UniProtKB/TrEMBL annotation:
<protein>
    <submittedName>
        <fullName>Looped-hinge helix DNA binding domain-containing protein, AbrB family</fullName>
    </submittedName>
</protein>
<feature type="domain" description="HTH cro/C1-type">
    <location>
        <begin position="6"/>
        <end position="60"/>
    </location>
</feature>
<dbReference type="InterPro" id="IPR007159">
    <property type="entry name" value="SpoVT-AbrB_dom"/>
</dbReference>
<keyword id="KW-0238">DNA-binding</keyword>
<dbReference type="Pfam" id="PF04014">
    <property type="entry name" value="MazE_antitoxin"/>
</dbReference>
<dbReference type="InterPro" id="IPR001387">
    <property type="entry name" value="Cro/C1-type_HTH"/>
</dbReference>
<dbReference type="GO" id="GO:0003677">
    <property type="term" value="F:DNA binding"/>
</dbReference>
<dbReference type="Pfam" id="PF01381">
    <property type="entry name" value="HTH_3"/>
</dbReference>
<dbReference type="InterPro" id="IPR010982">
    <property type="entry name" value="Lambda_DNA-bd_dom_sf"/>
</dbReference>
<dbReference type="InterPro" id="IPR037914">
    <property type="entry name" value="SpoVT-AbrB_sf"/>
</dbReference>
<feature type="domain" description="SpoVT-AbrB">
    <location>
        <begin position="81"/>
        <end position="126"/>
    </location>
</feature>
Amino acid sequence: MFKDNLVQLRKFSQMTQEDVAEKLGVTRQSVAKWEAGESIPDLDKCKQLADIFGVSLDDLANYEPEDNMGFAVPPKGKHLFGLVTVGDKGQIVIPAKARKLFDISPGDQLVVLGEEGQGIALVKSESFLALAGMIEKLK
């Protein structure tokens, strides 16, 4: 997990092991050992790595592409919750991880937004209405 994510993020960022080592104040050999799985950096260095690559510390350490349709580690604040199937009446089940993260409970109302060519999004109604109210006040 960690070692594979580190290699993938470094290459995606078009950085060499030397570049990463310089930013962290460590040797290139240390970075090479982390990428080979021979050792792991301390927590402070892990936090710095997550910041360098713009990902969460949790994703840097634990992200599994196989569990996420093969996609690479997402940027901090972005999430891929997997596939859902649309039922006969158009219903979907929002994955538990998404419901927990966004505090969605039974009975909550969601606004369905859409942009042609882009897709749809769900927003809690109170958040959407609060934003709409702020925009109206600016007019």
